[in-house]
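Changelog entry: the ABC transporter permease record was regenerated in this release. Current contents:
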Amino acid sequence: MRKLMNKKSRGFLMRIIIILVCSSIFMSLSFIIQRSIFETNRENSLTIYGEWQGAYFDISADQQQMIENNQLIAQSATMNIMGEVFADERAIGSIGFIEEPLIDMGRLTLKEGEWPTKENEVVIESYILDKLHIAYEVGQRINLDIRLNDRDEINAEFVLSGILKSYSANWQSDGELVSIFTKGNVFDITVDTHIFMQCQAGYEDVLDSLIKHKLCVKNTAAAFPFDIHEQGNQSYLYLLLITFILSVSMIFIAYFLFLLKERVNLMTLRALGMSLNQLSLQLFKASILVCTLSVLLNYLICMAVIGCLNIIFKRLTASGIILSYALSDWFIVSAVLFVISIAGFIFASIFMRKMTLTGNFSIQSNVNKRHRKYRGKYLSAFYLGMRHFNNNRKAAYLQCISITLLLLSTFYLSYNYQKEQNSVNFYQDIPDYVLDGRNSSLMFPRQQVINPLLLDDLNYLEGIDKIYSYYETDPMNDDYSFEWEGYQASPILNEISFMQRESGKVIGQIVIIDPIKNPELFNLVLNDIDEGELDIEAFNKGESALMYLPDIVVPKVWSNRKGSSFIYYQGEVIKDQLQLIHEDTLSVGSMIHVERKDFDNSIPVTGLIRQYNDSRVFNMFYDVYCLIVSPAFIPQLNGVNEISIFIKSNVDGELLDKQLSIIASEYPGVSFTNYREEASLREVNLQSKCFLYITLFACMISIVIMIQVFISYNKSEIASANIDILKKLGANKKTCRIYYLSGEVMILLSSILMANILFVLTVAYEMNSLNKHLEIKYTLSEMFSNYALPLHIGLMMFVGIVLFVISIAFSNQHINNHT
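Regenerated structure tokens:
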């Protein structure tokens, strides 16, 4: 023990402790960065979706009192709706008032102005101002058409006191949210009340129990969706088991090979007069090196296993596995590795003491021949140090291998990360909701029968930006052409809706209604006949038709994308310009001739429709002239053309899902696939992988630093032998110090510099990727403040300076011990 605590041993142990402490700090820093990323994402998520954790919608006074008296509810605030605001005869938002705590709970932020302080002042969401075509000017007077909850319609004048940053499209809700805020109940009427709440810390399961009974809506954003790793828990346990098994196997295999190789070296050092305690210390240093290399190889193998499992999971389940290493897991793994290292060291010491150490060794025989010309020269000592660094093949090989493996793992992770980004991009580009199932080749579904009432119901849903139709205009050809049209511009009817076009103008529209497949729509149209009557049997056979002839005709311009087709009236071809057919030229019994490049037929009109009584049908059949026939009239189109519906939404929550489910339940065989949810899950997976990658990179780079450091100290005896040679050649202490530092410092600083550059580039690359592919953006200041990069750079510089100072401080002691 006395020998172990001499100056040389104390210096060496001090260096080991400092290196381990610095490496531990660096490892811990990676977790600080990961946690910082997590907190930044959480903060941005709360800013977008609010801090409230749950909400009751349209509650009664008793329910409100029950919540307010609940001791497990930390805070609650109400939102009260007085009515709806209309523009162009359509409801665009709700008017109401809120309690002040909801401003903080919801992170409601004003772009301009202030909250109302008088009864004639209002704050309006910015997107509502756009719909009202009102300029962003605080203090102006505005008039609002309001339908109150008691069904009274009024026009009220308000002063715009503030402009609110849009929030309602992001919140998860089961009811209307206030878009126009007043001071209070300015109309003194009965209001619809929603209450938003936050639970006491540790009692969030109260909301879960309420949700199970369908009494509450949960704000999943406040729970931060990136905490959700339940899907990967089972895989996570398997991977931890694989990590442990690989750690044990790799370290014991490395120890066995190491002992076989070190036997000759131990015998040589013993022959030079080294004591057993000194040999044990030498073996301990070498053992640490072997353990470090084993850990590095272990993580690389585990990474390859994770990659293979991820590929397998994707092929089997079409989704990757989600992993997140917690700080406690790293402590457990580190403790296991430390115990294994101690056990291996004890085993190696016992094995070493049982070896027969014999042999002679001499270094004096050819000293003068090899090094005489370098006697006493500083430059020669530096040259020897460089040769020591360059000729240390094992250290150079290990350094190259570790750096190569690090770069290969970086390329692999970047490639895998890029594939995940492309997947997220694909799901972000496709529509949010798609009618019915998938088509394997196009990734889009097909639906043959589309009920116009279904489309009309979808059109009146709030939160839908646009409904797209997709149809094949000429399905009998191999060369299909596809058209995308906005819903308002191209209504999709029962089975096929193709326009009769000439010169880019609408001449007429043929609507096919199947009384068997769509009896509801057929009965609605049948009840709207103003002149004549329809023979249903003849209609089903394709021998009679109805004609929609509105009193006011507004021509609509269309692009002629596919061929040409014409409508004839009494033998006259309508060309060049649209000609209005008046009552005196069209009557019951008139023959309508329809010609298309693949169709030519005539049909008598047995009934005229002047106006549709049901507004839903009118919204579908609003074209200039509408000829209503059965599928038998155009048999080659019956059941061939396929139509699909795609929905783009501007809301992010469960409300639209519930509304679509209710609508789909009213139409047999109709269902919707939510691709937005799929895209969100992939974003969560992408962010989780980013956190994992940064942590793994930090750990590997820390290991690289430790490898270089321990390689240097493991070869210290070789450096000592060379110092002995220089001493015997007459070199002074300064020359020996130059030799010693030229090799040691170069290894230390080069590894630290390389690790620092790799880590900074890695974090910058991953953060830049997040900025490109996710909605939450990161500025440069956020990256450097929240991700502790200055702390990291400062720590790396501190490690380098400390190691440099230590090397200088102990160089004299090291040289004095080798005379």
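The longest helix spans residues 7-49.
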